[in-house]
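C-alpha cells for chain A. Residues wanted.
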C-alpha cells in the first residue's frame, strides 16, 4: 500500500503544480478581463477549507499514523479523475483559459468543443471532484467536510459569476449553449 500513498501524493503535487501554473505563472496577455474579484474569493475559500481541514490535531495524528487503506485508494481514484478532468478542460480551452473571467479579445469566441460540448464548467467540476477525493481519503469527518465544502461553495459561486459575465458578453449564443449543456456533471 506504500505505492498507493506515493500515487496519492504524486497526484496532489501534480494538481498543485497545475493550479499554481494556471493561476499564478500564466499570463493574461491577450485577454479582455471581465471579472477578477471571484478569483480571490475562490483562493480565500479554498485556503480556509484546507486550513480548517488540517488544523485539528486529531486529523494530523490520524493521517500520519493511518495505514493507506481502501478508502484512501478510492479517494485517490476520485482525486485523479478530478485532476484529469481539470487538466483536459484547461487543454481544451488552450489560450482561452484564464485565471480571471475573460475572453480572447481578437477572437471573442465561445468554446463549445470537447468537454465543453456537454458541461459548461468542466474545470470547476474537476476541482470539485478532486476535493471530494481528498475528503474521501481523509476519512475524518470535520476535515473531510471542510476540505470539500469550502472549495465547492467557491466553485459554485465562481460558475454563477462567470455565467452572468458570459451572458452579458455573448447574449443569445450563450443562452442557447446553456440550454443544451449542464453547469457541472
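Reply:
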Amino acid at each position: 500500500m506504500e505505492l498507493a500513498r506515493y500515487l496519492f501524493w504524486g497526484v496532489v503535487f501534480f494538481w498543485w503544480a497545475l493550479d499554481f501554473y494556471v493561476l499564478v505563472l500564466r499570463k493574461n496577455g491577450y485577454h479582455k478581463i471581465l471579472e477578477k474579484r471571484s478569483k480571490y474569493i475562490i483562493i480565500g475559500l479554498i485556503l480556509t477549507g484546507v486550513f480548517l481541514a488540517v488544523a485539528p490535531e486529531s486529523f494530523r495524528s490520524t493521517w500520519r499514523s493511518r495505514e493507506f487503506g481502501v478508502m484512501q485508494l478510492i479517494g485517490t481514484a476520485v482525486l485523479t479523475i478530478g485532476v484529469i478532468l481539470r487538466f483536459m478542460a484547461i487543454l481544451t480551452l488552450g489560450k482561452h483559459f484564464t485565471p480571471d473571467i475573460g475572453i480572447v479579445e481578437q477572437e471573442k469566441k465561445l468554446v463549445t468543443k470537447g468537454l465543453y460540448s456537454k458541461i459548461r464548467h468542466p474545470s470547476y467540476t474537476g476541482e470539485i471532484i478532486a476535493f471530494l477525493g481528498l475528503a474521501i481519503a481523509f476519512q475524518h469527518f470535520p476535515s473531510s467536510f471542510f476540505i470539500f465544502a469550502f472549495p465547492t461553495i467557491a466553485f459554485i459561486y465562481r460558475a454563477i459569476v462567470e455565467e452572468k459575465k458570459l451572458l452579458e458578453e455573448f447574449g443569445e449564443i450563450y443562452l442557447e449553449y446553456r440550454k443544451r449543456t449542464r453547469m457541472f456533471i
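The chain has seven helices and two strands. The domain at 69-185 is CATH 1.20.120.1630 (Four Helix Bundle (Hemerythrin (Met), subunit A)).
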